[in-house]
Amino acid sequence: MREGINKSNFKNFLLSELLIILGSAFFAAGFQFFMYPNDITTGGVTGIAMILNHLLGLPVGVMTIVLNIPLFLLSWKKFGTRFLLCSLTGMVMSSVFVDLFSTLQVEITREPLLGAVYGGAIYGVGLGIVYYANGTTGGTDIVAKFLRHRYQHINFSTFILLSDIAVIFAFAVIFERYERSMYAIIAMFISSRAVDLILYGAVNSKVCYIITDAPDAIRSAILERLDRGITFLHGQGGYSGDEKLVILCVIKQAQIVTLKRIVKDCDEHAFLIVSDSREVFGEGFSYIGAD
């Protein structure tokens, strides 16, 4: 049994490493082929390394590794050896790919807006893959993981975006490149959305609350026409004091129109609340055991 568990752990670790390498390649491609040629900086340690590259001519990848050393020592104490190894892979491979891609004579676009949009998207997909595999590319990613560990109600990408904006602001002030820094903020916003897409998926589920005087009719129609389960919640009107049943159901985005028709047909005076659901686990949605 122990051998089986060890083999399983090793396979998971190997898969994580491969995903991190893939994500690092995307990260470096977005930066080196789209952002760097258009003088669009990134945030975090890579952005600081880019500033040093402009000032001193030092390689971006090498400086990224040097600046990451103290942060990796802190992360090792806090998150353990596996996180350290995965993050080392992300940091080293992303740095290697950045310097490797810089040797290629490839010019895709010199239009800064295209560089910001496509570079931010590819860069963000790479980061999202690395984070999904429980790694980081080092730098402020590690700081963000510390903060996310403490403030779990805030998305990981929000911490990244805030730290990126701070570095971009420094780049703008030091080199007086205010216009390019505006493009950089666009790129970082797009990359943060791409990270959320990889980590949390597209928001394609809706949580619906229906306050109605015809709960049985709506329940039957939902079960028959949408094939979705429902839950009755007991509520009380704050003004009237009347007891009411509140229908709670989770449906797919494409089923919203049908649900509205059901509610209108059964009780046109019903109160319908629809909100986005970031993640839904259970039958008909995601498997609750998935990491």
Molecular structure report:
The protein is an alpha+beta fold. The protein has two domains: 2-200, no CATH class; 205-277, Alpha-Beta Plaits (2-Layer Sandwich). It is 64% helix and 10% strand. The chain is built from ten helices and four strands. It has a four-stranded antiparallel sheet, with helices on one face.
Q: Short description, anyone?
A:
The chain is of the alpha+beta class. Helices cover 64% and strands 10% of the residues.
Low-pLDDT segments, ≥5 res: 1-5
- Give the N-terminus to C-terminus distance in angstroms: 22 Å
- Give the amount of beta strand, in percent: 5-15%
Outline type:
elongated
Radius of gyration: 24 Å
**Total count of helical runs of at least 4 residues:** 10
Give the averaged pLDDT, no decimals.
82
- Structural class comes to alpha+beta
Largest sheet, in brief, is: 4 strands, antiparallel
Summed up, the domain count is: 2
Number of strands: 4
Spatial strand order of the main sheet? 2-3-1-4
Helical residue percent band: 55-70%
Order of helices and strands: HHHHHHHHEHEEHE
